[in-house]
Amino acid sequence: MPDCQHHPPSYTGLQKTANHVGEKIVTMSKASMESLREKIVADNTTCGLEKPDLINAEMDGRQKLCKRAEYLRRCGVEVTCPNHTGICTANVAEDAAIGNEEAWATIVGEEIADTLSINYLTTDGDSKTHTVMKKSQPACKNLKDPRHLVKSVKRVFWKSTFSADLFQKF
Ligand SMILES: [Zn+2]
């Protein structure tokens, strides 16, 4: 940007611009994603795969709340992003579909169903995403992410109290 004699835009400036062209960005993004899906099928066909539309996928929905909201919550204030005092940097509203894995999986599953079929879907161990995904992707099978399981086991392990003579010396 500085090379083009432009000042780098601020986060709020970028957000305002994005809101102006939001609908066009959605249309362009959908077209771009569709061409990527078609490229996957074409590449799989070139590779000689028996079912070129069959893919393996991984899903994990996360929602990032803003620092201001986290601070206000710690102070006991009930807050809703982005409708609170000060600057809000949350990437989505708390009740937006992306924070709700099931709603997100429904949208994604239906969107890609015209081009791709999901064979294995890897999700967090506690995720219900797979159940919802099966509605639009009936052949989809679920794999649980071992990273998530290891993290949960570690958390429980560190909370545990061990007696000094639990591990015997030989
Ligand atoms: Zn916020």
Task: State the strand order across the main sheet.
Answer: 1-2-3
Structural class by secondary-structure content: mainly alpha
User: Portion of residues in helices?
Assistant: 40-55%
Overall pLDDT level: 84
Rounded radius of gyration (Å): 22 Å
Please indicate the percent range of residues in DSSP E strands (runs of 2 or more): 5-15%
Q: Sheet bearing the most strands, described?
A: 3 strands, parallel
Q: Which small compounds were modeled alongside the protein?
A: zinc ion
Report the principal-axis shape.
flat
Number of strands: 3
Report how far apart the termini are.
67 Å
**Residue windows where pLDDT falls under 50 for at least 5 positions:** none
Organism: Mizuhopecten yessoensis
InterPro entries: Mutator_transp_dom (IPR049012)
Protein name: Mutator-like transposase domain-containing protein
Domain Mutator-like transposase: 60-155
Give a written overview of the molecule:
The structure is a single chain. The protein has 170 residues and is mostly helical. The chain has a domain at 24-54. It is built from six helices and three strands, in the order ααβααβαβα. The chain has helices spanning 11-20, 22-46, 67-74, 101-112, 129-136, 146-159; strands spanning 54-58, 117-123, 141-144. Strands 1-2-3 form a three-stranded parallel sheet. Strand 2 (117-123), helix 5 (129-136) and strand 3 form a beta-alpha-beta unit. Helix 4 packs parallel to helix 5 (129-136). The longest helix is centred in the first third of the chain and has 25 residues, at 22-46. The model has no long low-confidence stretch (mean pLDDT 84). Zinc ion binds at residues 66, 68-69, 81-82, 84, 88, 90. InterPro entries: Mutator_transp_dom (IPR049012).
